[in-house]
Specification:
about 650 residues, Amino acid/polyamine transporter I, 2 domains, 3-stranded antiparallel beta sheet, 9 strands, about 5% strand, globular, symport, transmembrane
Length: about 650
């Protein structure tokens, strides 16, 4: 890269800026005349809507409420909001600001410090892996949505061909003891002492007949003392059987991939087709789609909240969700859980926020949007807790158990716990369809914006290739098709094990490594004061000084804390089913670590390439590789031009020079 001898070329000099092959930049501009101009958001609010659509998703609904009740109820909000202030908001603001300042996404955004351009590649690898596995959640949600379009939910009874003899469509107080000997465990008097909680579809007589056969098949009598037999009975419920035997048809382990589930395959194909048509016309088209996909879930959430609050036991569930236990705040894991939740719910270090920021106009007020986004994100998480726990309170009351026995996190909440609760409501199919439609809409915009982030990485890396004709649309089709093929491994009988492998290792602790290096790069390599000047150029005023304190010290320390706690608490992946705990074999764990390292390995690799391409001693090479590659409008009036590399505005890509 040619620097400009300490000064910005004037217009005449720009017209004769010479390429290495002897052609001028002006000539290159003529050859690039057919390249489409890079898009920007049609409206200022489109950026905020896109950020909310991408980051506010399923984790807000099925993870935050569980973490809140497990980690001290309302007391958990203290570490949560502190982590938002010192970790989430500063990192979010840094990423969108880098994208907006450089007006490019992915690897090219980090031309602000070419030595660390590997950050863009690392983020792109992670978001690609996340896109492959996240769409499986949409696949399951589509499946449940279609299954809800019936007069009776298929997981509300045991009369389906996939149900086992152990299936029982009611509830048993399994903690009770029967004062009888082993031969009496299934006689009439013993059964009369056993409490049944039958669902609406089954009266108590039917429940009693059902449990008789179950006890005959599955009773394991233990602790026989004083003529008292305590029964440990495995009774399978129809919700779990629908999930494991019908939807997943799950195999014994990752070593048994089994056959492709063609019904899930069609749902996966549908999900990718929808994603493609949401983004194929660029951000102006996807921006319009997001007005629907971002706002509609809130309407559905309000409907579900109103319904939940009218149920018996709803207030007990909400109290369980919110009553504070301040003693939990003394546990470091609670603070780590808060930090992890903030990081994941803000979708940091995936490169997509950088890409979304790059579509802003140079003077867009992303500083304001950052705080509005944080408010919306937290509001959604807290509101989702009311929706979930009002229904779980009702479910616990129906089963006569404590709420912590029915509360689950992650996919278990969406595909087992909540469907089980909905099945007990009047007009159950309606509420089930509304719930899964909400899940689809929450996940859909997160998915297609994530794909947009990866596509932006590729297009900005090769603009002369993909900004012509319909090549971008073809690229999106290729990305969706390849992702669909990878997703097929997760819709076979062993697909759940592959999904868990992707989910556990593709993101895990690698995003903390990326975020930490981002902070160090901007604060200490590019220079925090220089970047503050750049922000003033964009926003027209000085950013609050506390942000500088966060970027230089508080946020890196916060990220380092999360990484260290994650390393200390690391355990090899296992998959917990209701009947068995599956431990992954070592070869599968090895594949997981390959996925994890496949992203961050690019940071030292590309850094090494940049150093190799530079000239001089080793230190001189590092210094040269650290010089930002800037255009005229990005240069400060007081800039030391010996410390930058300059690109004329009529050059599409620095490789043209």
């Amino acid at each position: 890269m040619d620097s400009c001898n300490g000064q910005v070329p004037n217009e005449n000099e720009m017209n004769t800026f010479i390429k290495h092959d002897g052609t001028s930049a002006a000539q290159q501009g003529q050859s690039n005349s057919k390249i489409k101009k890079r898009e920007t958001w049609s409206r200022k609010i489109d950026f905020l809507i896109a950020c909310c659509g991408f980051s506010i998703g399923l984790g807000n609904v099925w993870k935050f409420p569980f973490l809140c009740y497990r980690n001290g109820g309302g007391a958990f909000l203290i570490p949560y909001f502190l982590c938002c202030i010192i970790g989430g908001i500063p990192t979010f603001f840094l990423e969108v600001s880098v994208g907006q300042f450089m007006s490019e996404g992915g690897m090219n955004a980090w031309k602000i410090c070419p030595l660390f351009q590997g950050l863009g590649v690392a983020s792109a690898v992670i978001v690609f892996l996340v896109n492959c596995d996240y769409n499986i959640l949409l696949t399951w949600a589509f499946y449940y949505f279609f299954a809800s379009l019936t007069t009776q939910l298929p997981w509300s009874h045991c009369d389906n061909d996939w149900n086992t003899p152990q299936c029982f469509a009611g509830y048993i107080n399994r903690s009770q003891s029967l004062s009888s000997n082993m031969s009496d465990t299934t006689n009439s008097s013993s059964l009369d002492n056993l409490t049944f909680y039958a669902s609406d579809e089954f009266n108590k007589g039917m429940a009693r007949n059902n449990i008789t056969s179950v006890l005959n098949l599955t009773t394991d009598v233990v602790d026989m003392t004083n003529n008292t037999a305590k029964l440990r009975t495995y009774v399978s419920d129809p919700v779990t059987e629908f999930w494991e035997r019908k939807v997943l048809d799950i195999s014994e382990g990752v070593h048994e991939p089994g056959m492709i589930k063609w019904d899930l395959c069609l749902c996966l194909l549908l999900a990718w087709i929808v994603v493609y048509f949401c983004i194929w016309k660029g951000i102006k088209g996807s921006g319009k789609v997001m007005y629907f996909t971002v706002t509609s879930p809130y309407i559905l959430m309000i409907i579900l909240l109103i319904r939940g609050l009218t149920l018996d036991g709803a207030m007990d569930g909400i109290k369980f969700y919110l009553i504070p236990d301040f003693s939990k705040l003394l546990n470091l894991q609670v603070w780590a859980d808060a930090g992890n939740q903030v990081f994941y719910s803000y979708s940091l270090s995936l490169g997509t926020l950088v890409a979304l920021g790059s579509y802003n106009k140079f003077n867009h007020n992303a500083y304001r949007d950052c705080f509005m986004f944080a408010i919306m994100n937290s509001f959604t998480s807290i509101m989702a807790g009311f929706v979930i726990f009002s229904v779980l309170g009702f479910m616990a009351l129906k089963q006569n158990v404590s709420i912590d026995q029915v509360a689950e996190s992650g996919p278990g909440l969406a595909f087992i716990a909540y469907p089980e609760a909905v099945a007990q409501m009047p007009v159950a199919p309606l509420w089930s369809a509304i719930f899964f439609l909400m899940i689809i809409l929450l996940g859909l915009d997160s998915q297609f914006v994530g794909v947009e982030g990866f596509v932006t990485f590729v297009v900005d890396l090769y603009p002369r290739v993909f900004r012509k004709g319909y090549r971008r649309e073809i690229l999106i089709a290729i990305v969706c098709f390849v992702s669909f093929l990878i997703g097929l491994s997760m819709v076979c009988q062993g697909g759940m094990y592959v999904f868990q492998l992707f989910d556990y290792y593709s993101v895990s602790r690698t995003i903390f490594v990326i975020a930490f290096i981002e902070m160090i790069t901007i604060s200490y390599v590019y220079g925090i004061n220089r970047f503050y000047d750049n922000l003033e150029m964009m926003y027209g005023r000085r950013v609050f000084p506390a942000v500088k304190v966060c970027w230089t010290f508080l946020t890196p320390m916060f990220i380092l804390f999360l990484f260290v706690v994650g390393v200390i608490s690391y355990s090899e992946l296992s998959y917990d089913r209701k009947s068995v705990k599956y431990q992954y074999p070592q070869w599968a764990i090895g594949i997981g670590w390959i996925m994890a390292l496949a992203s961050i390995i690019w940071i030292p690799v590309i850094g090494g390439v940049r150093i190799y391409q530079a000239e001089g001693t080793f230190l001189e090479r590092i210094k040269e590789a650290s010089k930002p590659i800037l255009r005229k409008h990005q240069i400060r009036t007081k800039e030391d031009f010996t410390q930058i590399n300059y690109i004329p505005d009529d050059v599409t890509h620095e490789s043209d020079l």
